[in-house]
Amino acid sequence: xxxxxxxxxxxxxxxxxxxxxxxxxxxxxxxxxxxxxxxxxxxxxxxxxxxxxxxxxxxxxxxxxxxxxxxxxxxxxxxxxxxxxxxxxxxxxxxxxxxxxxxxxxxxxxxxxxxxxxxxxxxxxxxxxxxxxxxxxxxxxxxxxxxxxxxxxxxxxxxxxxxxxxxxxxxxxxxxxxxxxxxxxxxxxxxxxxxxxxxxxx
Length: 202
What we know:
DNA polymerase, domain 1; 5 strands; alpha+beta; CATH 2.40.50.140
C-alpha cells in the first residue's frame, strides 16, 4: 500500500492535487479541507495517502495528516459510505470537527454535511462513536496552507469541484451563485464550496 507521497506540487484544485514523485506524476483526490493546507504550486508537499482498489480503477486519496486519513478510513467502514461520499463529508468540515460531532452525538451538525441524512447520521453515531476513544486519532502538525484566492475563474473552479463531489452541472452552478450571493465577492473558493455543500445537504 502507498502510505504517503512527497514531492513538488505541480497543480491543485479543491478536489485534486498533482504531485511529482521521481519521474512519475500522481493524481490524488483530496477534500477541500486538505486543499486549504496545500502550499503554493512548485513547493514540496507531503501527503498521507489511501489507495482504494476497485475492479475497474485504482483511486489514490491524499490527506493532510493522520487525523484526516483515519477518519476517512473510519467513514468508509460504515455501510453506505464510499470514498466519494467520505471525501464530500471531509470537504464539508474539518476532520476534527466531524469527529467532535460524532463523539458528542450532534445529529444536527452531521445532517448538515453533504450526503448525510438523518438515518446515515444515526448510523455514524452507532458505528463510530465508541471507536473514537481518547487517542484513537492522532493529530499531526499541519503545514501552513495558502488560502484560495478569488480569481476570475473562481466560480467555475468551485462548480467543477462540486460536480466531482456529486452535483450535476446545473446544481453546482446554482449552488455557487447562491453561496456567492450570501458570502459576498471577497469569499474564498473554499468558503464558497463549503457553503454550497451545506446548501446541497439541506
